[in-house]
Each structure stands twice: as C-alpha cells, then as structure tokens.
Design goal:
By secondary structure, this protein is mainly beta. The protein has no helices and 60 strands.
C-alpha cells in the first residue's frame, strides 16, 4: 500500500470542524503524595471520569483569549483554548466554580494583558454534567502612554518598563510592558487608572557572562487618556561579587551547573532588588554585578548522577554554606566550597496499574511523573522520573530511594483511535481480504495490518473493553454475529450473536460506562436492540424510527451516553431520543434533504454531538453547532463520490471535516486546530471501506 502525506496551505477562511462518533469520556488527573519508595512499592490508581465545561469566548475580535481557569474551593482547572475558533474546553469534576479569564490586546509592539472574573449569571455556577457556558470579554478602551526613563545604567544590556494595576474597574489585574530603546523611550497602551511602575535592567558580567537583574520600583502612573509620562531611574551603585566555586571531593564542576545570587537581607525591601544567575564553568569561576548595601547568598544547582547511567540525573541544590553577615559595599572576592555530591543512591521500583473508576478498564498512555526532594541519599537533592502506561494500563519506573509525589495524566481519547494517543487514526478495511490497514498517528511509519473479517462483513470499531483504545471489530450480517478483538486482551476475542440479516449495527456507549455496547437497529420495525455492557442480562429494546431511516447515534445532550436517533431522508428530519433514564425531551429538527449524508459529530468541542449533513452534489457540509445553533457552519469540502469521514484527527476534542476519495484513495482533512492548512494522505484503494465512514451509509 502506498502512503503519501503532505500539507498544503488553504488560502481561505475555514470554519471549525468536528468528530463523527462519541469519544470516550475524558479522565481527570490524579496526584498521589507521600509514596514511600525506600523499597519496591506498588501504587495502583483509578482515574475518575471528568465533566466537560466548554463554550465560546465572545467579545471584541481584537482581544485575544489568553487563559480560562475554573476555580473552586478545592482546586483550579485550566482550559485548552482554540485561538482560531475562540472556544475553550475544561475537564473538571462536578462542583461549584468561578471562571477567571485573561486576554491580551496587541497594538503594534505594545501588549496589554487584562484579567477578570466572569460575572455571567449565575456566578458562581454549579456543574453536575457536561456544560456549555459562553464567556464575553469586556470592552476595553486604551490610550497611548509614552515617555522616557532617564538615569539608566550605561552598561545595561537590556531595559524594560512594566505597568501593573489591580484597581481598574471591571478587572482583577491589568498589566503592560515595553522594552526601552537606547534613549530610554517606551510606548504602552493602557486604560484609565493608577498603575505601579517597575524598571528592570539587565547587566552582563564582562568576565564570566553572569547575568544580573536589577528591578526598581518607580513612582506610580495615573492614566486618564493619552499622555507622556517620564520617569527617572534611581541611582544604583553596583559592586562585583566574584570568586571560585569548589565542590568537596570533586576536581571540576559538573557540566550544566549554575549559580544563583539572591538578596537575603530581608525586610524592609529597598527600592531596587538585585539577583544574578549564570552557568558555572568547569573551573568554577563566577562574577556577579549587584546593587550595594544588601547581603547576598550564593546557591548552586548541580547535576548529579544518582543512579547508574543511562538513568536520568538528579539536581543537587546546596544553599550558601557561609552566607555573609555584612552587606556588599565594594568589589568582593568570596570563594565558596559546597558539600560533596550525594550518591550513589539505592534504586527501587515504583510500579502499578491504572484503571478507570467504575469500569475497572485499564488506561493506556497515561503519563506518570514521580518527583521527590526528600531523598534518602541526602538533603537539598531533587529527582524526577517519568513513565507511560502500556496497553494493559501498567507502568514501572526506577527511582532513588526516597518519598515521592506521583502525578497521573491521561491524554484525550478519540473515536477511531487505535493506538490510544488521543487522535483518530486513518484506516481502511479491505473486504476482498478481510484486512484492516491502519496508520497509527503516534507512530505513522509503523502500519498496523490485521486480518479480521471477510467480504460482506460490516466494520464496527469501538472501545468495547473501556481502555480508551478503539478495538478492531466486525458484524457479520449473514449470521448476526459480532467478532471483536479487545485491545486490552487481543488473544481473547469477543464473539457475540446479536442481530439478523438486514439489521444495521449501531455500536455506542448507551449506558455511559465508558465501554462501547453491542447494538443493532432493525429498519423493518424501527426497533433498537442494545446489550448494555454494565448489565448485559438486561437488553435495551426501544422502537424509534421506521423503514428507510438512517441511524445517527451520538451524545446530543452531552450526558456521556449515546442517544438513539435517526435521520429521515424523505423529509430531512432528525428524530433524537434522549439517552436511557434521561428526563430530557426528544429533539426533532429538520436539517438536510433527500440525497444528503448525515454526518453527526462534535464539531465545536462542547461535548455534545452536532447535527450535520454532507451534500455530495456540491461537496458542502452543513452543520448546526450546539454551542451556537443560530450560526450554522457551512464548508465546501469534497466532491461527488467522496465519502465523509469526520473524526478528531488532531486530538483537540473537536471533529475535523474530512473526506475519503475512493477514486484515488486520498484522505482530505481540515484539522480544526489549524484550519488554515489541510492534509492529504493517500491510504486505501477504490474498493476499500474507510473506518470513519458514518454508520448506516
């Protein structure tokens, strides 16, 4: 099979795109503290499914969203922001939150940052399910403030001025900064208000290239409109602090070591604060240029090999062994000898198993980070180690003896994601040989080829074992039998008879337990037959639809469960029934016409499936985003004969508009994260079946 991949620039504005079928629920991060690794230790963890808070960031298009943080009494959760679509998305637990928002305004070289607490009613607000909440950035009016700063240090390598205020009405903070030119001139954009002003001057040591930062508090600035405000820097008397660093028992300084000089005088703080930092050469010579009249401690950061190579190195950070009692008043030479490097350390193993709370399914590709500053080898030493769970949710790492904090982070999951990296994989099924051809996005040069199925079978990929990886599976209409290879245990295939000739397979997570359920839609009676994985002895049987309807399952209500739904080509109406046990009302919406192809998916990233159709006669997509249904997405992408294959190919939790062209086997994808570019990948031949082809088509 040939494969060509290249990226082209699309010289037109592109609307955000979406995914086809329901992705697994996102998982919350987890931290485990006080892990005693003074012997081999096992730490098993269950990650909780999270909720999705998302929405649009509205307001002046000249304002660029910078951050959105959901804050509660128990913690804070940061958002992913799509700068193209101005949408945000946060995974968080149920609770009551406020939103802290920041954005920036750019005017030429001037950048101004604004922070505020969102006051949209209700505020604070409570989340118990996936929630859509739009944010409107407040209007701002700024004026040009210019001026010069005099009395600058002649030898300063760089100089900058910063303005900061916590009293501008409507904002918790407003900040701006400007580099000073050689004459000390600056330009910033500021709203009306009173600002504290700080000057930063950077000096570079002439002998050993150590950098010193001198930060001075200047007089405050009152802005009431365009203004010229000049400042005078305080007179700063500097002196050199230099010498040689030695380490007990070491002939030279280890590579990548550094030194930090900091003010240890305590209160009251002077108008100008100095500190310095720089790399230590092998001979240990150093030199700082610092403000006089203050005491300075000199601490080190030294790489140390605690375990046998090629293990990661640790960091030894000894404090100043003999901090000075008197302030720096003139050039001073002070030689410093630090204690011997710690190590070698005794190695132990931290290992364990990561599962999903409730289902107990293993979670692959979880990033596990272990860190410690309490090591048995000695004080002032830091070590960190990283591991990733395998397909069975297992991880293992070797660390120096000590007490550790473990941090677990599960990346995003996507429908059609066979390698569990959070991105849908390009894949086709070849009926003539019953072979699956998959390009795993995590390692696209290592193709997956799996013989599973035969001519006449229907592909039904899904996460049947709940491990957040898509399983290879087929439905055999001739016998009504499902054949599934669970990725968590591929040597034990699942074989289940469920359905009959003429049924349409409609796998989905109807019970919301994180596992794909075996299900069929029987057009002859309009009946759905579902085996819920959480209670397989109690099948779900529901009449919804009629002969000729096309099943369009998805999570339209954002409750984490697949909803029973059909699209009726004869009148273009969508009939959506809320998930089992839900109190929501059915959705009935006309969208599309005879000959269109339904392409449901979460195109706006709000955790809800959007109604959408692909019109092959003109190659146009028509989508109703649930976050803003009055502003349909209309995107020309494709041509007659193309097959729509929407999925989250870029891992941003939004379905991407995409088509597969049987005539040349090319996949044409608009990634929603970067819609100004598109990818074209040759994968498949004219008789193949693209895995992401919508159900029922």
């Amino acid at each position: 099979m040939r494969r060509k991949l290249f990226t082209l620039t699309l010289l037109l504005l592109v609307c955000a795109a979406t995914a086809n079928s329901q992705a697994p629920r996102p998982l919350l991060d987890k931290t485990v503290t006080a892990v005693n690794a003074t012997s081999n230790v096992t730490v098993n963890v269950a990650l909780d499914p999270g909720l999705v808070l998302s929405g649009r960031i509205l307001g002046d298009p000249a304002s660029m969203p910078d951050s959105v943080v959901a804050v509660s009494t128990t913690g804070s959760f940061s958002a992913e922001i799509n700068q193209t679509t101005h949408r945000y998305r946060i995974v968080l637990p149920a609770g009551t939150y406020n939103l802290d928002v920041s954005f920036i305004r750019i005017n030429g070289q001037a950048v101004t940052s604004f922070s505020f607490r969102d006051s949209t009613v209700p505020a604070p607000f409570t989340i118990s399910a996936d929630t859509t909440r739009d944010i409107t950035l407040p209007a701002v009016s700024t004026s040009s403030v210019t001026g010069t700063v005099s009395n600058l240090l002649t030898l300063a390598l760089s100089k900058s001025l910063s303005f900061d205020s916590t009293t501008v009405p409507g904002f918790t903070n407003v900040a701006a900064s400007s580099a000073l030119d050689t004459g000390g001139a600056y330009t910033v954009q500021l709203p009306n208000g009173t600002f504290t002003v700080k000057l930063s001057q950077t000096l570079l040591s002439t002998t050993t290239f150590f950098t010193s930062i001198l930060s001075s508090d200047l007089t405050s600035a009152v802005v009431t409109g365009p203004a010229t405000i000049n400042f005078a820097a305080p007179t700063i008397i500097t002196a050199k602090l230099s010498g040689t660093v030695n380490i007990t028992g070491s002939a030279t300084i280890p590579a990548s070591s550094s030194l930090l000089a900091s003010d240890i005088s305590g209160a009251p703080l002077p108008q100008t604060i100095s500190f310095g930092v720089g790399p230590l050469p092998p001979a240990g010579a150093y030199e700082f240029v610092l403000g006089t009249g203050r005491r300075y401690g000199v601490s080190a950061s030294i790489p140390v090999q605690l375990l046998a190579s090629p293990a990661l190195i640790g960091i030894f950070s000894p404090p100043d062994p003999s901090p000075p009692a008197n302030p720096l008043t003139a050039d001073t030479v002070r030689n410093i000898t630090y204690p011997a490097l710690p190590g070698p350390a005794t190695p132990f193993t931290i290992s364990g198993h990561v599962t999903i709370t409730g289902s107990g399914a293993p979670v692959p590709n979880v990033e596990v980070a272990a860190s410690s500053s309490v090591l048995s080898v000695g004080p002032n030493t830091f070590f960190s180690q990283h591991a990733t769970t395998n397909a069975n949710g297992d991880y293992s790492m070797v660390v120096p003896a000590g007490t550790y904090t473990l941090f677990f982070h599960a990346g995003p999951a996507a429908s059609g994601d066979f390698d569990g990296d959070g991105e849908a994989d390009i894949a086709v099924f070849r009926p003539s040989t019953g072979t699956w051809f998959i390009i795993p996005s995590a390692n696209p040069t290592s193709f997956i080829l799996q013989q599973w199925g035969a001519s006449g079978d229907i592909v039904v990929p899904g996460d049947y074992d709940g491990d957040r990886k898509t399983d290879i599976a087929i439905f055999r209409p001739s016998t009504g039998t499902w054949y599934i290879i669970p990725s968590s245990n591929p040597s034990a295939p699942i074989i289940q008879q469920w359905g009959a000739q003429g049924d349409i397979p409609v796998p989905g997570d109807y019970d919301g337990d994180g596992k794909t359920d075996i299900a069929v839609f029987r057009p002859s009676t309009g009946t759905w037959y579902v085996i819920p994985s959480s209670n397989p002895s109690a099948p779900i049987i529901r009449q919804w639809g009629t002969q000729g309807d096309i099943p369009v399952l998805g999570d339209y209500y954002g409750d984490g469960k697949t909803d029973i739904a059909v699209w009726r080509p004869s009148n273009g109406v969508w009939y959506i029934s809320p998930s089992i046990g839900s109190a929501n009302s059915p959705i009935i919406r006309q969208w599309g016409t005879q000959g269109d192809m339904p392409v449901p998916g979460d195109y706006d990233g709000d955790g809800k499936t959007d109604i959408g159709i692909f019109r092959s006669s003109n190659g146009t997509w028509y989508i109703i985003p649930t976050s803003n249904p009055s502003a349909p997405i209309i995107q020309q992408w494709g041509t007659q004969g193309d097959i729509p294959v929407p999925a989250d190919y870029d891992g941003d939790q939004m379905a991407d508009i995409a088509v597969w062209r049987p005539s040349d086997g090319n996949w044409y994808i608009i990634p929603s994260a970067t819609p100004s570019t598109f990818t074209v990948t040759q994968w498949g031949s004219s008789t193949d079946v693209p895995i992401h082809k919508p159900i029922g088509q």
